[in-house]
Description:
Layout (H helix, E strand, L loop, with lengths): L5 E12 L2 E13 L4 E5 L6 H8 L7 E6 L2 E2 L5 H11 E5 L10 H11 L4 H14 L15 H12 L6 E5 L7 H18 L2 E5 L3 H5 L3 E6 L2 E4 L1
Parallel strand pairs: 3-8, 3-9, 6-7, 7-8
Antiparallel strand pairs: 1-2, 1-4, 4-5, 9-10
Amino acid sequence: MSSAVLQATGLSRHFVDAERRLEILSDLQLDVSAAERVAIIGSSGSGKSTLLHLLAGLDQPDAGEVRVGGELINGLSEKARARVRNQHLGFVFQFHHLLPEFSALENVAVPLLLAKRSVHEARARAEELLAQVGLAERMTHRPAKLSGGERQRVAIARALANRPGCVLMDEPTGNLDPQTAQEVEGYLQQLNRELGIAFVMVTHDHQLAQRMDRALILDGGKLERF
C-alpha cells in the first residue's frame, strides 16, 4: 500500500462539446507524499481545475483511481466523499469564499463544527490557527473589514482546521498584489514546515512553482516535470 497522502492512478477524463470529444486528462499519475509541496502549472484549458476537482472527489473520472489518505474515493456516495474531504483535505482558492456574515474566527470554526467538534474545541483551534497566520488581533472582524491578504490568510487557516493530510490550492496568490502574495506564500511555507501538511498548488506563477519541492506541468492530459 502506498504511503502517499494523495494518489491518482491512471486518471482519465473527457467532455463532449458540440459533438466533439475533448480529452482533458489521459492516464494521469500523481503521488503526493506527506509534507510535500507540489506545484502544477499549465496553459488555460489544459485541465488543471478538472484535475483538482477529481482529486477532491468533486467530480468522477472516466477511468482511474483517486485515493485520499489511502482511502479509495471512486464510487463513494456524495456524503461519504464529503466526509473524506472534511477529514483529510483542505482547500484554498484564488477567491477566498469566506462567509461574509461570519467573523474570521467563525469562518475558521465552520469545518470543525461540521466534523462534530464541540464549540469550545472549534473556537480554541480557530484561535490557534488565526494566531499562526498573524491574525490574532483580527479574529472578530468580518471579511469586509479585512484586506485581501488577511482574507486569504483566514482561508488558509480554515483549510487547516481539521489537520488535513493535504491542502489543494487553486491560484492561492493569483488575486493579490506582489507584496501581499509574497507574504501569503511565506505563511504557507511556514505552516508546511511547522505542521507537515502537503500542498498541491495550481499556479500560473512559474517562479512560485519552482520554489516548491516539485513543479509539474499539465500538458496533453499528463503531468510531466517542469
